């Protein structure tokens, strides 16, 4: 039995997944996290450091890490890469001025060796705002179709209204579990 | 007596058997040694023969008898021969005495080294090939990068062409009211010495590259982002405030969460103190809890020590606070 098989067996027992949520500042990462957890989202401050919650969903245990997106924190992102099964990249669909920054940061992440095996879910957040770009537009601006190294999907959502959040998470869980748990 | 007479031959017999065993063992040892020696001699013979062959080939290479086009294949063959010799040697170390092991290993190493030297000397072609290809590669990469930047710039232009707000003005006074800015993403950019009054409730407010400006606003529904501003005064209520790379700015704030500064120095804060007609109505439309105002608790992302306050911001003394009209 190889080490990989042992690890897979161990994870299968717990049905545990480690999800890392990243994105530029003001993308709505913490709001998504709190919305999942049923917490108040009206008084969220910019994240200084990180938040972590554990969610039970469809019999899986999801450890979701939400790391602050301010410039000064981005260099610490790499400390959270290890053992990541799924990467959620959150985009402020209304912040057109910084979409190219957003694209650059995302593609840099995808070059990371320690994230090589992770599934990528892109949340085109803030779809409830009038000025938001559609998820198709976000897909094109971020050049997602060029990604060949990761399984990826983009979902337009709104953390404030809660729309399509579950849809995204369900796809992420399906893709990860197909990879980790069913290879016996 | 009889008993001892019986015993004697038995003892003699046992002794005889022992002697015989010993002789046999010695003979076997000798034979083993013999075969070992024979095998070892055989190995050394073969080794010398192969060694000589490889040396000949190396000499051929060094003397330049080998045709240029055949050099790579010749080098390849020699390297393989050396490998075979090494394998043969590794398999035979147990029958060799220490001296032979060391000696043979040395000789193999010498061969390898010589081959290596010859390879470097005779195949400069390969190196030259690399050098010739590199600049070509660089050029194509360069072209690609340029393309990407172009494409990025046009994309960026397209993305912000429908920006709503005020840009590139000096020493002007600008007022925007009510519905014209309601829930809009307002952008203020490249302003010097301007006063901007937003008498309404924008969705977000982005401000960058401003000097010596005064910005007053009604309640901003979501967030305010400030970048590269100097010597400015901001009078704003909002949910979130982020200030990047700015200095010498005063803030009169109503903020429902904690404001943050990053790469920013010399900030002073005071509570929000602007009123105009309809401001109460605009506030009540948002449904904020007006008793919650965190104007005096900023997070400095460049100051992570929790036991000492950040030196980059302070509270504006009451005597220095301005009254807005």
TrEMBL record, chain A:
Origin: domain of life: Eukaryota
Positions that bind Mg(2+): 30, 47
Keyword tags: GTP-binding, Lipoprotein, Magnesium, Metal-binding, Myristate, Nucleotide-binding
PROSITE patterns noted in UniProt: ARF
One Pfam family hit: Arf
Gene3D superfamilies from the UniProt entry: P-loop containing nucleotide triphosphate hydrolases
A molecular function GO annotation: GTP binding
InterPro entries: Arl2, ARL2/3, P-loop_NTPase, Small_GTP-bd, Small_GTPase_ARF/SAR
One of the protein's GO biological processes: vesicle-mediated transport
Residues annotated as binding GTP: 23-30, 69, 125-128
CDD domains (alphabetical): Arl2
Family: Belongs to the small GTPase superfamily. Arf family.
Name the record gives this protein: ADP-ribosylation factor-like protein 2
UniProtKB/TrEMBL annotation, chain B:
UniProt entry keywords in alphabetical sequence: Acetylation, Chaperone, Cytoplasm
GO cellular component: cytoplasm
GO process annotations (BP): post-chaperonin tubulin folding pathway; tubulin complex assembly
Major localization listed first in the record, in broad terms: cytoplasm
Recorded superkingdom: Eukaryota
Entry-linked SMART domains: CARP
Intracellular or extracellular location(s): Cytoplasm
InterPro entries named among the record's database cross-references: C-CAP_CF_C-like, CAP/MinC_C, CARP_motif, TBCC, TBCC_N, TBCC_N_sf, Tubulin-bd_cofactor_C_dom
GO molecular function: tubulin binding
Self-association state and partner proteins as the record states: Supercomplex made of cofactors A to E. Cofactors A and D function by capturing and stabilizing tubulin in a quasi-native conformation. Cofactor E binds to the cofactor D-tubulin complex; interaction with cofactor C then causes the release of tubulin polypeptides that are committed to the native state.
Family: Belongs to the TBCC family.
Entry protein name: Tubulin-specific chaperone C
Originating species: Frankliniella occidentalis (Western flower thrips)
Higher taxonomy: Eukaryota, Metazoa, Ecdysozoa, Arthropoda, Hexapoda
């Amino acid at each position: 039995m190889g080490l990989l098989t042992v690890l897979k067996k161990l994870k299968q027992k717990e049905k545990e997944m480690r999800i890392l949520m990243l994105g530029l500042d003001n993308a709505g990462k913490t709001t998504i996290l709190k919305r999942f957890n049923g917490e108040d989202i009206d008084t969220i401050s910019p994240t200084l450091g990180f938040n972590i919650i554990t969610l039970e969903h469809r019999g899986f245990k999801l450890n979701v890490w939400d790391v602050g997106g301010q410039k000064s924190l981005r260099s610490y992102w790499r400390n959270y890469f290890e053992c990541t099964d799924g990467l959620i990249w959150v985009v402020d669909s209304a912040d057109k001025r910084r979409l190219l920054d957003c694209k650059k940061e995302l593609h840099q992440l995808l070059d990371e060796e320690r994230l090589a095996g992770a599934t990528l879910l892109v949340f085109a957040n803030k779809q409830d705002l009038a000025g938001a770009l559609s998820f198709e537009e976000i897909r094109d601006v971020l050049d997602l179709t060029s990604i060949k190294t990761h399984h990826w999907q983009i979902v337009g959502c709104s953390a404030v209204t809660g729309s399509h959040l579950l849809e995204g998470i369900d796809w992420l869980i399906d893709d990860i579990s197909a990879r980790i748990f069913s290879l016996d | 007596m009889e008993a001892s007479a019986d015993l004697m031959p038995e003892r003699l017999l046992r002794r005889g058997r022992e002697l015989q065993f010993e002789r046999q063992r010695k003979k076997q040892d000798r034979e083993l040694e013999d075969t070992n020696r024979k095998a070892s001699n055989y190995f050394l013979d073969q080794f010398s023969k192969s060694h000589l062959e490889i040396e000949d080939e190396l000499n051929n290479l060094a003397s330049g008898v080998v045709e240029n086009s055949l050099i790579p294949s010749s080098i390849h063959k020699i390297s393989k021969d050396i490998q075979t010799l090494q394998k043969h040697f590794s398999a035979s170390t147990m029958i060799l005495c220490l001296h032979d092991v060391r000696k043979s290993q040395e000789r193999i190493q010498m061969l390898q080294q010589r081959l290596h030297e010859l390879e470097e000397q005779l195949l400069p072609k390969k190196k030259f090939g690399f050098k010739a290809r590199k600049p070509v590669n660089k050029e194509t990469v360069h072209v690609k990068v340029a393309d990407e930047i172009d494409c990025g710039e046009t994309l960026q232009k397209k993305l912000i062409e429908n920006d709503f707000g005020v840009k590139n003005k000096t020493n002007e006074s600008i007022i925007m009211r009510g519905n014209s800015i309601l829930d809009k993403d307002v952008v203020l950019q490249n302003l010097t010495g301007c006063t901007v009054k937003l008498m309404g409730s924008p969705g977000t407010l982005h401000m960058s590259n401003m000097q010596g400006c005064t910005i007053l606003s009604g309640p901003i529904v979501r967030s305010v982002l400030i970048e590269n501003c100097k010597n400015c005064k901001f009078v704003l209520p909002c949910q979130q405030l982020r200030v990047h790379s700015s200095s010498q700015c005063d803030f009169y704030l109503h903020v429902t969460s904690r404001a943050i500064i990053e790469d920013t120095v010399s900030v002073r804060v005071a509570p929000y103190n602007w009123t105009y007609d309809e401001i109460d109505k605009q506030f009540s439309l948002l449904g904020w809890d007006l008793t919650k105002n965190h104007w005096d608790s900023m997070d400095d992302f460049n100051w992570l020590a929790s036991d000492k306050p950040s030196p980059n911001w302070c509270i504006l003394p009451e005597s220095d606070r301005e009254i807005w009209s």
